[in-house]
Specification:
heterodimer, A: mainly beta, SH3 type barrels, OB fold (Dihydrolipoamide Acetyltransferase, E2P), 3 domains, 5-stranded antiparallel beta sheet, 16 strands, flat, B: alpha+beta, BirA Bifunctional Protein, domain 2, 8-stranded mixed beta sheet, 3-stranded antiparallel beta sheet, 13 strands, aa-tRNA-synth_II/BPL/LPL (chain B), nucleotide-binding (chain B), Aa-tRNA-synt_II (chain B), ATP binding (chain B), tRNA binding (chain B)
């Protein structure tokens, strides 16, 4: 825990807001007409996953929350709960799907991910720059929508459906940016 | 990727950027047909308008003997236009660049931006309100008086909604006028809402509540004119004679964007000079770039500024609105972040 000011804000940082840890998803400087400076943030509650906007006075002090990352292996799913295992201690953690968000559709058993820990409980997942998954269903003969640059939708081994270029075939391993759900490349 | 490279790759983007060309043409036509003089105002000034909330760009002017003089890039054409009003030009407008420093990492600001200011003599600010309604209607990008902006359908046809600041605080933030105009009571109300008020000025608390609870809800279905600003944020507006708590200042919002700031202009040179002095003190206290306030402007007011009203409008934001983009950089061929690197 350290006291910082809005000048120290960085995307991805964790701060205490209304007595709960939140992650700064985005921030913008705003100046109301003929007014002093403010910082508008998009904050994600680590507890509920709820995203809200809040505008701080520029220079206002806030408490930075220490959140550590631990490498954990995804094991299996039980309804809405995802079971991970700490690679170092072998301790198992039960993680609510809300904390993982949209990324659940890319979770494959035995893959290792960076999980965010606060007060010894999992509060979120650090999205990797890319995930590599196998295409399990692709319509070989798809003409695609040429007006938008020749793409089609395929299904990955985790069930996720993504938009890819026409040349992608069943069995290909492709890389996806989980932040934007966009296709990046085909792995050799 | 720089904007020019994106345009080369995605030629369909040209259309969005050409909207600006049309907006500029429409604005000029709008004022010329109404008999306004268009004037050029200096971008390089010896004395920028004294405003503590704005950071100026400072540069140096040298004579042939390399004697230096501090010079500043204009933060608005306001003082130059008012000198011409004092000289007797009558209704006039400027469509020009202005420069404001330290406004990076904002989707609503660019270090240099296009500003439109117009002034009418012999009228109060209500006339400027109807000008705003008419101007938006006259822009070619506005088809059928309905605009789609960031998922909202906005009906821009006149008349727009009008709401005083007092009403807005009461309706959206549950703060009555009794609390709004008193620093202690406002701080108390803010603390109850969970804001931190230690060391905060009335203006900071007022604006923090405004930005959090009011601004995001403004103008999502219809443009809103917010008027009668608290005297403490009068800027260069005239205080109402029948109610010294408020000033004849208005702003209009469309789709949550602040588009323009208008006043029935302050014409009392003594009051103007004391506000300038207050601003200069504040600039020093904040550790910002210090300059001399414009004595020549005070002289112009002394010589007699006619009763007049005027407004400053962010032209880039009008283009944002018509282009349905949420970042000013998406309307500029050469946004600051292309030139100076993204922050």
């Amino acid at each position: 825990m350290a006291t910082i000011t809005t000048a120290d804000f960085r995307k991805g940082m964790f701060i205490e807001f209304k007595n709960e840890p939140h992650q700064i998803l985005d921030f913008q400087h705003v100046n109301p007409g003929k007014g002093s400076a403010f910082v508008r943030t998009k904050l994600k509650s680590l507890k509920s996953g709820r995203v809200q906007e809040f505008t701080f006075k520029s220079g206002e002090s806030v408490v930075e929350v220490s959140v550590e990352t631990r490498e954990m292996q995804y094991l299996y799913r039980e309804g809405d709960v995802f079971i991970f295992m700490d690679n170092r201690t072998y301790e198992q953690y039960h993680v609510q799907s809300g904390l993982i968000g949209d990324f659940v559709k890319y979770l494959r058993a035995n893959d290792t991910h960076q999980l965010l820990i606060h007060n010894d409980s999992v509060v979120g997942i650090r999205l990797p720059k890319k995930v590599r998954l196998t295409v399990t269903e692709a319509d070989a003969g798809a003409k695609g929508n040429t007006a938008t640059g020749a793409t089609k939708v395929v299904t990955l081994e985790t069930g996720a459906r993504v938009t890819v270029p026409l040349f992608i075939r069943e069995g290909d391993i492709i890389a996806i940016d989980p932040e934007t759900n966009s296709y990046l490349e085909r792995s050799a | 990727m720089k904007t020019w490279q994106r345009l080369k790759k995605q030629p369909e983007l040209w259309k969005r950027y050409f909207l600006r060309e049309q907006v500029i043409r429409d604005i000029r036509e709008f004022f010329h047909t109404r008999g306004f003089h268009e004037v050029e105002t200096p971008l390089l000034l010896k004395n920028p308008p004294a405003e503590s909330y704005v950071d100026v760009f400072r540069t140096t002017l040298y004579d042939r003997h390399r004697n230096p003089t501090d010079a500043y890039l204009a933060t608005s054409p306001e003082t130059s236009l008012k000198k011409l009003l004092a000289a007797g030009i009558g209704n006039c407008f400027a469509l020009t660049k202005s420069f404001r420093n330290m406004e990076t990492q904002s989707r609503l600001h660019n270090p240099e931006f296009t500003i439109l200011e117009w002034y009418r003599t012999g009228v109060a600010y209500e006339k400027i309100m109807s000008d705003c309604e008419d101007l938006l209607k006259a822009l070619s990008g506005v088809s059928g008086q309905k605009l789609r902006y960031q998922g909202n359908i906005i009906d821009v046809s006149p008349p727009w909604d009008r709401m005083t600041i007092t009403e807005a605080f009461s309706r959206f933030a549950g703060i009555n006028s009794h609390d709004l105009y008193d620093v202690k009571r406002l701080a108390g109300a803010a603390r109850k809402k969970g804001y931190r008020t230690d060391g905060a000025t009335w203006e900071q608390i007022y604006n923090q509540i405004f930005l959090n609870e009011i601004e995001p809800k403004l103008g999502l279905r219809k443009p809103v004119i917010l008027y009668e600003y608290p005297a403490a944020v009068a800027a260069l507006a005239r205080i109402r004679k029948d109610n010294p708590l408020v000033a004849e200042r208005f702003e209009f919002y469309i789709g949550g964007l602040e588009m323009g700031d208008a006043y029935t202009e302050l014409i009392d040179w003594r009051e103007q000079e004391s506000r300038f002095k207050r601003e200069m003190k504040e600039i020093e206290r904040l550790g910002k770039t210090v300059y001399d306030y414009d004595q020549d402007f005070i002289q112009a007011l002394k010589s007699g500024l006619p009763d007049c009203s005027g407004i400053a409008v962010g032209v880039d934001r009008i283009v944002m609105l018509l282009a349905d983009v949420n970042d000013i950089a998406e309307t500029l061929f050469f946004p600051g972040k292309d030139l100076f690197g993204a922050e």
